[in-house]
Amino acid sequence: MVSTTERYADVAERLAEAERGNAEQIRKSAELILEVIRADALVFTAGAGHSLAAVAETFYRAGGLACVYPVYHPELLPLHGAQHSTKTERRSGLAEEVLAERAPGPDDLLVVFSTSGVNPYPVELAAGARKRGASVIAVSSAASVAAAPKRAATTLIDEASIVLDSHVRPGDSSYPPDAPRTAPLSTVINAFLWNLVLAEVLDLGAAQGVDIPLWRSSNVDGGDEANAALLAKYGARVPALR
Questions:
Q1: Number of domains making up the chain
Q2: Is the pTM of this model over 0.85?
Q3: Label partner for 100 (CA 20 to 30 A): which of 3, 121, 145, 237?
């Protein structure tokens, strides 16, 4: 049996590995987001299944970017039907249906979270965004992509402008180490990588004199007032903010 201290050390090392292995990609991702902010454009974020947890982390969150447009289809959420959500992510053509409603343009950016990165929805979403001139950041796992059965013409990693590699093991589970069956880490590492990018965006913005639009907690003094200005700026362009 692994002690709590040993388990914590293992998870901490996985986070450190993700940070070390993505240092340059984190910087490049932050530069792309800074370009979006300069252009007064939007950062689209997308995922399916449990990767939607990462999308929720990017949207309307205290300390998060205000210029985020969450790409969402209810059939992709396991809470609306677990087995159906898996079938939906594997359905070719859904991404184009979603993009037909609202797609990122040349000044925008799409961030797609998908650990396996092989199902048609995330792959076709990235391809469709690139076809429309948008840059694409993939938050995925190269090891998981390599091991997963291919269900699309390409993979998310193939379609991305920048890849943030979570280094998550195939199957996502991390415990026990010699034969993992539980303790999935993708949600934790995805959030960690995104927050590293946000920190870099803030530092780059400060160095270049660019004000970064960040949400405040509505449960601190002045939070509602600060957020009201951001809602006025982005509310008409991001329907989910209404």
A1: 1
A2: yes
A3: 145
